[in-house]
């Protein structure tokens, strides 16, 4: 993965094509996490804006998907779309705690609303 100075394609297209070929060849497998933008910047020699534009193109084309944990190769054979990385037990516990807290807050707001309506 490197920049070709005599390539007539835009730099983001060069990088997107390279990543696309890695996915097609199996070098990057479905569900596999791609290197970070910073790592791709260092590996490719492109600036981060170019890397981000390349990832955006691949995302729009359905080759990859992005979560808060990074970008991953999409499983093209999956009828449900991308294969999301599994949630860890700790992440699940945190989400459960946040949901519980939100439920309590909503209940409190509903009780306050009801009290105001009765007054």
What's this, in brief?
Helix content is 56%, strand content 7%.
Note the overall shape.
Answer: elongated
Along the chain, the helix and strand elements come as HHHEEH
Largest sheet: 2 strands, antiparallel
Instruction: Report how far apart the termini are.
Output: 69 Å
Beta-strand residue fraction: 5-15%
Helix/strand-derived class? mainly alpha
Mean pLDDT: 88
As a percent range, the share of helical residues equals: 55-70%
Count all strands and give the number.
2
**Helical run tally:** 4
- For the largest beta sheet, what order do the strands appear in spatially? 1-2
**Using only CA atoms, what is the Rg?**
22 Å
| Low-confidence spans | none
Would you write up a description of this structure?
- This protein is mainly α and 119 residues long.
- It has four helices and two strands; from the N terminus they run αααββα.
- A two-stranded antiparallel sheet has the order 1-2.
- Strand 1 and strand 2 form a beta hairpin.
- The protein is elongated and about 75 Å long.
Describe the secondary-structure layout.
Elements: H1 11-25, H2 37-44, H3 48-61, E1 64-67, E2 70-73, H4 89-118
Antiparallel strand pairs: 1-2
Helix pairs in contact: 1-3, 2-3
List keywords for this structure.
mainly alpha, two-stranded antiparallel ribbon, elongated
């Amino acid at each position: 993965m490197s920049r070709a100075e005599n390539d007539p394609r835009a730099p983001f297209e060069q990088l997107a094509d390279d990543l696309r070929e890695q996915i097609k060849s199996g070098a990057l497998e479905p569900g596999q996490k791609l290197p970070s933008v910073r790592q791709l910047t260092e590996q490719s020699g492109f600036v981060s804006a170019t890397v981000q534009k390349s990832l955006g193109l691949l995302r729009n084309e359905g080759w990859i998907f992005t979560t808060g944990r990074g970008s991953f190769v999409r499983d093209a054979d999956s009828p449900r779309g991308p294969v999301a990385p599994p949630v860890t037990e700790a992440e699940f516990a945190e989400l459960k705690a946040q949901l519980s807290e939100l439920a309590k807050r909503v209940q409190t707001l509903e009780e306050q609303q009801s009290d105001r309506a009765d007054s």
